[in-house]
Write a structure and sequence with these properties.
The radius of gyration is 14 Å and the shape is globular. It is 3% helix and 51% strand. The mean pLDDT is 95. It is built from 1 helix and 11 strands; from the N terminus they run βββαββββββββ.
Amino acid sequence: QVQLVESGGGLAQPGGSLRLSCVIPETIFGHSDMGWYRQIPGKERESVAVIDRSGQPTYADLVKGRFTISRDVAQRTVYLQMNSLKPEDAAVYFCYAAHYYNKYDRDEYWGQGTQVTISS
């Protein structure tokens, strides 16, 4: 069973920083787009940042210039560095991986979610 293991959520003050980490299994890491989504209760899950198989990142407009996605191939880990946090960034953050088993078809996997709370 494929399991994405997240860590790094918690409490931060407005203007503060947090870093999320997600370890992705070796069986899927090398052929996956990966990234982070977030969800607020009562709202749909939304994309925050994704890094594709070539290493190209894309960001939601709301986080551009504040969040940075990166990956460590040796550690099979994708990171989300969140700076200048705002109260509206509070959400459950989910790690995501889309594993391509051929050119067009993929399986999607999700982490269990990690809570990010922003409060002074």
